[in-house]
Design a protein that fits this description.
The complex is a heterodimer of chains A (259) and B (374). By secondary structure, chain A is an alpha/beta fold. Chain A has 2 domains: 1-81 and 172-259, P-loop containing nucleotide triphosphate hydrolases (Rossmann fold), CATH 3.40.50; 90-170, no CATH class. Helices cover 38% and strands 24% of the residues of chain A. Chain A contains 10 helices and 10 strands. A 6-stranded mixed beta sheet of chain A has the order 6-7-8-3-9-10, sandwiched between helices. A 4-stranded antiparallel beta sheet of chain A has the order 2-1-4-5, with helices on one face. In chain A, helix 3 (97-103) crosses helix 5, helix 3 runs parallel beside helix 6 and helix 5 crosses helix 6 (156-169). Chain B is mainly α and 374 residues long. Chain B has a domain at 52-287. Chain B has helices spanning 2-13, 18-46, 52-76, 84-99, 102-108, 116-120, 125-147, 152-172, 174-177, 192-210, 213-223, 225-230, 235-261, 271-284, 289-305, 326-341, 354-373, and strands spanning 313-314, 319-320. In chain B, a hairpin with a 4-residue loop joins strand 1 (313-314) and strand 2 (319-320). Classes of the chains: A alpha/beta (259), B mainly alpha (374). At the A-B interface, helix 2, helix 3, helix 4, helix 5 and helix 6 of A face helix 1, helix 10, helix 11 and helix 12 of B.
Chain lengths: 259, 374
Amino acid sequence: MRQKVLEVNSVTMQFGGLIAVNDLTLFADQKEIVALIGPNGAGKTTAFNMITGVYKPTSGHIALNKLNITGMRPDRITRLGMARTFQNIRLFKSLPVLDNVVIAQHLRIKSNWLGSTLRLPRYNKENRLMYEHAEHLLEHMGLKDVIHETASSLPYGMQRKLEIARAIATQPVMLLLDEPAAGMNPAESMELTQLIQSVRDEFDLTILLIEHHMDVVMDISDRIYVLDYGNLIAVGTPAEIQANDVVIKAYLGVAEDEA
Amino acid sequence: MMSERTNTRESISKHPPSVKKNVNLYSVVLSALLLIVLYFVLMKIEGSANALVPRIARLCAINIVLALAMNLINGFTGIFSLGQAGFMAVGAYTTALLTIEPARKLSMYIVTPIVKPLETLTLPFGLTLIIGGLIAAGLAFLIGVPCLRLRGDYLAIATLGFSEIIRVFIMNAQSLTNGAQGLKSIPPNATILWTYGVALAVIAFMALFTTSSYGRALKAVREDEIAAESMGVSLFKHKMMSFMISAFLAGVGGGLLAAYNGTIGQDMFRVMQTYNVLMIVVMGGMGSISGSVIAAFVVTIGQEMLRVLDGPINLGFWKTSGIAGMRMVVFSALLLVVIVFFRNGLFGTKELTWSGIVRNIEKLAGRGKRGEVA
């Protein structure tokens, strides 16, 4: 039996009187690609923020590889093997592309600040490996030609890819992608679909993604969770979700003659 | 799977970047040459007939230290701290108290006698600089615990407040600091070698630290805190590291300033002192080491050169017998011009590097040749 990498157990997030996410339970098996979909404002990003530690859930438990990470700081969760991208791209804009990916490996550094400043042999070795790994990663993502460009000068699609590369550089077991295909045309989202599958295989990742492009979601997801107004309304394979009446109603509304 | 990954790493490392090695070599040679030139220039300045010249040269070096200290926290880490003057005061008083001769101390403390161990204790100048820096860093830790949880303007106000608290404490700790009377007869240890030695050491430290993995993490915090935290950078730890190192360097700079001035008082360390340093940092470029160094020279020398404006002026159509503070009016206007037309300072976050200079010379030479052809 495959191991559950991510387990979210009846998690609720309440902002004052508003229940953004209500009693959400989901899991992701090793190397599975799981999608979280739902209309705007359904609570998808809130769920992401709870899983990655940005918000502390009002109640419930979240576990990564059986380890309870509920309410931990984001940097600690990342150190334990969870990485993410952002819906509205958050790169280190004025830094070179290469540095963006190198910085993401800082969390694994063993040298202290003084040893690093004095360029002790151990630091030099660590630093060289960080750069080599970053170059390798950027080559894999098709960004080899722009490694010395400033991150903000990249075209939109490349910035999205760079965010994924940067997340992978933290050496995660679990990768969370918040609308990776947002703003992409059909050809680009097709390419992205292949890229996500290839990084999953190359780096042994379990992936949870939020996405509005249904062709992308149906194409790559092993399982899909559907949220509406903070409530989980359906779970299943892409085929099951496409045939689910509740999901169709949530997305398209109810036809007048049915009501 | 795992072995595959290490294989790719090895295959890359088989091709070391040989170009980079050459660049490093000629940078080292050129830097060494520059140091030798600098040494002779400084010796020349030291022997200058005008006693003011070596004094200003020393103040330039002290301002480099102070500006780099502030640039680390404000420019490289993106934390708008205004606590500089407080940390400088700590360093200045530490150096003063540990270097003034015991007999002088005895005659200075009129209101209340000086506390016991300090009465007779004197230490070597270099050691007192380090002790002053360490005390400032320790204080930065205590101030940082509440302050670094704040952001933006709130943090600026909180650090400003703590800086004032330090000053008021100094004013009232009569038996320790001699209160409002201040301290005098501080041995003039801030020679040209000491000031430039420390300045060069701080420049070297900053260049190495800001390009290390930790320095890169600080820049990440500056660029985007949320993203940095999501990439595993502990915000509190890294902000605290930057804040403490900055305070250490400010303490060392304060110690140099005490030895340079000969007398110190709590009045020297008002907020105005912080703004003076901030002016250098902003003018040079937040996040640029070479910018801070050059701006330290420009501002220090500029303020002295503009001193003539305070004296009598006769422009033919307008005469004055001297307005005190006129130079600051003109200087502030010049600063405004810099801020308006070079929003990011002279350098922005860029650095002056040998390879950059060579590239520019090549570009200029290329343009010259093309000109000849045309």
